[in-house]
Design brief:
Elements (H helix, E strand, L loop, with lengths): L17 H37 L7 H22 L8 H5 L2 H35 L12 H28 L16
Length: about 190
């Protein structure tokens, strides 16, 4: 497959289309958001330890908040981890295949992953909508609205689906060096 001058940067390297770059930027933004959620969970945990150990008081919301923050960070971090090729991947077979076969294998794997992610998005949306419509709250004293936590499932899988679509485009139409490989040390610029 030949690439036009619009597909290359001034140095001659392949440059994905604007839509694929935008998806990558969105994935990065949500990866940063997930990192801040993990930081918040650590700070809340430190607060909980201080309140219990130093002040000798009981805690009400901290454990639950940490759990919800970690669920949110996991879901919202999905697209960023995909962008970095950080998910578990077996690369023995692809490394033995010629470039065209690698491209076909990567496309088939992406399509199967997209189908599974679409199902998770669908059922995650149903779970979120049901908790929102029925006003579900946690059974703790804090009574946290569960729709906020459940929203992270369809949002995270929706963003993951977008990143997978961008990766599918790269696998099917990108330059050979743009083929997805499970090597986090070769993260995108």
């Amino acid at each position: 497959m030949s690439h036009t001058p619009a597909d290359t940067d001034p140095a001659g390297a392949f440059r994905p289309p604007a839509g694929v770059r935008l998806i990558g930027a969105i994935s990065t933004a949500f990866g940063i958001c997930a990192a801040f959620m993990i930081l918040a969970a650590v700070l809340v945990t430190c607060h909980m330890i201080f309140v219990r150990a130093v002040l000798g008081q009981s805690t009400i919301w901290q454990t639950e908040a940490v759990i919800y923050l970690m669920i949110g960070a996991t879901m919202l971090g999905l697209p960023f981890v995909q962008r970095l090729r950080g998910h578990v991947g077996v690369d023995l077979l692809p490394s033995l295949l010629p470039p065209l076969a690698r491209r076909v294998l990567a496309s088939v794997v992406m399509l199967a992953t997209i189908a599974m992610t679409g199902a998770m998005l669908w059922y995650g949306w149903e779970m979120f909508h049901m908790s929102w419509a029925r006003g579900w709250k946690s059974e703790s004293v804090w009574a946290f609205p569960l729709w906020i936590t459940y929203l992270s499932v369809p949002l995270g899988f929706g963003l993951y689906l977008l990143q997978l679509l961008g990766d599918l485009w790269l696998a099917a139409f990108g330059a050979p060096e743009a083929l997805p490989e499970p090597h986090p040390e070769r993260s995108p610029d």
